[in-house]
Structures are given as C-alpha cells and as structure tokens.
Design a protein that fits this description.
The protein is of the alpha+beta class and 157 residues long. The chain has a three-stranded mixed beta sheet, with helices on both faces. The chain has a three-stranded antiparallel beta sheet with strand order 3-4-5, covered by helices on one side.
Length: 157
C-alpha cells in the first residue's frame, strides 16, 4: 500500500496472526510523496518485524499498488489505502475469490520482493538520531491529525 497506516485493530490482528504462525508479509514503498506519512509508517516497523511480520521496501520506482492476497484464494485490489482518510474518501476495494488470480497476484508480489529491501528489526530509512526522532514524532502527530480528520469526514457519510 502506498500509504500504510492501519488502525490499531488491524495492526493487532496482523501481529497476532504472525505470532501464531501465519505468514504476514508487507511490500511497502521505500519513499513517499507524503514524507510524514512514510515517517509514521516506518515507526510501525519495529513492532511489526518483532512480531514476525516480514516487511519489504520497494525503492526502484514510485510504488502505489493497492493489493492483498489472503489465504491463497482471496484477492483484494483497488484504490483503497490502509490509512484513516481512505475510510472517508470515495475509494474502491474489490474482493475476488479466485485461487488462480490469487496465485498470479502473489507471484507478482514475490517478484517485486526479490528486488526490494528486506527490513530488519530496528532498521529504519529515516536516518539516525535526532533526524529519526524528529521525523518519527512529526509522522505520529500527522497520523493522529489525519485520523481525527478522517473520523470527522466519515461522520458526514
């Protein structure tokens, strides 16, 4: 996902699934057109990787894919990001139950992962020391503000 800021429930569900032995793998952009969102996403890495979730960052080109494969038979494709504003925007998410399509989509993702950077525990692309703290803190606050805006917009629907 181009903007990966899932809510607390989805984060908890992914971590619990990984801890129970389910293979959870994320292919995320290594940079973003919204640096604060990327900084907030990177702040999630340590908790996700330590729970057993594999994260790969794509650095070759702009990465705006929005796709998921679940249990080898359910594919989800669309314009929907895992961020608070996608809940309030007019986004599209199509669920398709088809093992052949799921296998093709999974193969596409694995091909990208071979050319992506595997994130290790504690690793971050935000720099070191003060820069990492500053960008991470700004990212977290930006996420909180975006979440609040998303909730307000969602009440209008």
């Amino acid at each position: 996902h181009a903007y990966f800021l899932p809510g607390a429930k989805l984060l908890r569900a992914m971590r619990n699934a990984a801890r129970s032995g389910v293979a959870v793998t994320l292919l995320l952009p290594g940079s973003s057109d919204v640096p604060l969102i990327h900084a907030a996403t990177v702040q999630l890495y340590r908790r996700l990787v330590s729970a057993g979730i594999r994260i790969y960052e794509w650095h070759r080109t702009v990465f705006h894919a929005k796709a998921a494969v679940i249990d080898g038979h359910l594919s989800m494709l669309g314009s929907f990001n895992l961020d608070p504003l996608s809940l309030a925007n007019l986004e599209v998410l199509v669920e398709i139950e088809d093992r052949e399509l799921a296998a093709e989509l999974e193969a596409w993702a694995h091909a990208r992962m071979r050319d992506a950077h595997a994130v290790r525990t504690g690793e971050t692309a935000l720099g070191t020391g003060f820069q990492r703290w500053y960008l991470g803190t700004l990212g977290v606050w930006a996420t909180r503000i975006i979440t609040a805006i998303g909730r307000l917009l969602d009440k209008g629907h």
